[in-house]
Amino acid sequence: MHYSYVKSGFKKTAALLLACVMLMSIGAVCSAAAIPADGEEDTVYSRLLAIKAVYPDQYFYFTVDGSACWSASGSNCRLSSIPSRGGLPSGKEAASWEGWSCVGFARYVFYCVFGENFSAATKTSSPVVGDVIHTTGPGSDHCSVFLREDENYWYVFDANWGNGCGVRWEGTISKSKNTLHEVYHAKSYDDLPLGDVPQQETGRPDDPLLTDPTVPGEDVSGETHDWQPGLVVLNATCAYEGEQIFTCSICGETKIDAIPTLEHTWDKGEDNDDGTITYTCTVCGETKTEAYTGRHDHGKKADYEPGDVDRSGSVTANDARLALRYALGLDPVKTGGRIFDLCDVDQDGKLTASDARIILRIAVGLE
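Above: the chain sequence. Below: its structure as tokens.
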């Protein structure tokens, strides 16, 4: 075979392969992109609006089944399991790196807009629209997509497990409570025009897990709103405030009001044998320790019937046996402690065989 023919054939083959690779690359980027509405210019901001049209306009929660997920690493908010919705790619397409909750959502949006994973993006110091910002503060470590900022807040597009992985557009993060830790900027950012970005949109109140909750709902425009009954999106507990969304029937504006925290649900407590009792909340696990000075001290001992030494909920022969052992010094007991008071049924300030006898009579129904 003639050498020039072989060389020419090789060039044609190489050119064909290169064209295939380029077509495949273009197809991959197109499948990743969020497609703007008909007639809109394809820009960074219009792609963000296309995602907003699905989250939160159609689906409030960024979760697998569309319901709330109250875990920072729950299977319902796992990025690779998020289905395709509204023409957007699935989470699996975006999950070259896995993510949950706020990180999962930020990676998803970044991929839909730029076709990149933000963890491999360029780090900068000042965010622009579409960048992922990593903020930290007391009890918070959060990733979100930057929209704009003023002197008090960063306005973001995000989802967070603290409100069930609910999606926020123009959510606010307080600059006084948080620090801008890192900014991730897409390597392909300059391939898209920025677009017309409004600078005066109404921000939503702070996430209570990111900043101190604000009291929203002040009408600074002078307009009259007709707020409809609120939709609870985050139930209050004794650990954190809840949230409910109100929508104006006139203009469609929304606001979020805080639902006050609930009271703790304390258990019956454990005697520390040092004159104090430690109570534990059965909901959140918080504890409190209080001094105890007697059976009727603010009802602290009223949970147990006098003579119920083993605190089983009823007086039995076993209680009489335990009381007798304490009276005879066979088992140690602290004078004035909880067990001492339960044994001292005649309330003479001493533990004697007489107390054990009375407890036994109570147990068999003679008293």
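The longest helix spans residues 3-32.
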